[in-house]
Amino acid sequence: MAYIEAKGLTKVFTVRKKREKGHLMREKQQITALDSVSFRVEEGELVGYIGPNGAGKSTTVKLLSGILTPSAGTACVNGLIPWENRRQHVRDIGVVFGQRSQLWWDVPIADSFALLRDIYRIPLSSYTKRLDELTDALQLESLLRTPLRQLSLGQRMRAELCGSLLHSPRLLFLDEPTIGLDAVSKLALRDFLRHENKENGTTVLLTTHDMEDIAALCSRVMVLGHGKKLFDGALNDLLARYDTSRIVFVRYDGDIVLPPLPEQCTSERDGDGYRIVYEPAQVPTSVLLSALQAAGPIRELTAQPQSIDHLIAKMYREMDL
Amino acid sequence: MNTIKLYLHSMRMLLKSQLQYPASFIMQTIAQLVMEGGEFMAVILIVDRFDRLNQWMPGDLFFFFGIMSVTFYLTECFGRGVTGAFPGMVRAGQMDTLLIRPRGVLTQVLCSAIDPRRISCIAVGTAALVIGCQRSAVQWSLLKVLLMGESVLCGFFLILGLFLIEAVFCIYSVKSVELVNALTYGGRSACEYPIDIFPRPLRFVFTVIAPFALVMHVPAAYILGKPLFGWPAWVALVTPLAGLVTFAVMYVVFYRAMRHYRSTGS
Lengths: 321, 266
Hints:
The complex is a heterodimer of chains A (321) and B (266).
Chain A: E1 4-16, E2 28-41, E3 46-50, H1 57-64, E4 72-77, H2 86-90, E5 93-97, H3 109-120, H4 124-138, H5 153-165, E6 171-175, H6 183-200, E7 203-207, H7 211-217, E8 220-225, E9 228-234, H8 235-242, E10 246-252, E11 266-270, E12 273-278, H9 285-295, E13 298-305, H10 308-318
Parallel strand pairs in A: 3-7, 3-8, 5-6, 6-7
Antiparallel strand pairs in A: 1-2, 1-4, 8-9, 10-12, 10-13, 11-12
Helix pairs in contact in A: 4-5
Chain B: H1 2-18, H2 22-50, H3 58-78, H4 80-91, H5 94-99, H6 105-111, H7 119-135, H8 142-173, H9 181-190, H10 200-209, H11 212-223, H12 233-238, H13 241-258
Helix pairs in contact in B: 1-6, 2-3, 2-7, 3-4, 3-7, 3-8, 3-11, 4-6, 4-8, 8-11, 8-13
């Protein structure tokens, strides 16, 4: 059996609207945050979970970690139903919320870790070993005596990760872990996650808006929109569908007005050059090139694919999210 | 056993973090002293004016005030998670982090806050108790000491139970409900005085709904040597258990309500 197995997970929130004039009772509104989502995740997989804001990503994580009870459908994680066997289930999972701290604000992080040891009932020997391993990998040794409130965002995220991995969970949920981190911290975090997944076989479910996280880490990606699962497969397969256009930057010697290009191309001035977007399937590159060359002496020309963010935005648009 | 160890460890750490801001801590402790001292002054003034209330002498009234003060503020000090911090925890989503740990929710809520500033209120209450015992010339016996301990302990659970009502509302509406304060803070202010001075409807409220009278007044009256309605000692031993019953009922309701917890934000 798969490690995580979700079948028809549905979560409906009832939101009470403001009372309107002339009405005695407030109207209730049903919002479907998650609409019959099914998937399986095998042990040791590193799965990315993406979708626009409000798509239901966090709701899925909260259901699978036992925080919420679903309105319909069921899920099984390692043979347990998260919201029914909460205490037993959470012993084997770690959750990192990017925007919510799990450590204690005013005490040194080492003290927080010691308390977590009591909470998870970790034997002292395995605790010291694991702590050494984690502080080493996350470069936390020098920060252990510093209160959480004095850490920078990147340091805090590392501390949070350490805290949620102390009990060696077999499944790790990460809810936007790289939010607000600088480039160095992001790269270090990704390295660490890859290592943790590979060495300890930890299954990781990662929700993020940062497509580079997904590209760097996940072999498999699930797309969620309006509470429905829209795609489940390899990132490259997903991108191939939308990765159809190329961008060309061209700069001429002197000030040259661009001649009319084939209809399907869009061009705009960009600094002292031009930025042209075209689809090679419609306009062969050689055609475009000869049109550009005919206009005058080209000083510089670069061609590149669209960024992943653009592709995802395009995908969201096409899926009408 | 492990749970108690966890609680003590948590308390140690919370105390440490509160002492990170010593000036603020000292000032707030003094503020609490002034507040509770004022309450005590009110009792002293009443005693000064009327010299007796029904059959209760000044010393008796100090005693009633003292036992409520000590019990209530002990609860607020050690049960801060339930009596004060809970609505904020639900609103800010801290509840989520408790739910992903392999411990009971209520245990963790209790482990997540302490309010050592209340120490000054407890001191005022203790002073009132001592003065009351002296002026009423209480004859202590082993039974009376036991009764006193039982009353404070059961009172602790009663007050926790009453605050849990508010917690349950919070789970549903993510907002605290002031109405419940009538039972908790209202109960504290009213039941600083013995139950038999109140009109019938209030007696009903503080005997049946929020049984402060059963938990505190019945044993206190026995200790003062003026048992309510002439009840024998065993009655005074049994009635405080109403506090535990209140807590048990609210405990069950609380865990039922937690199934409807909806979390906030992402």
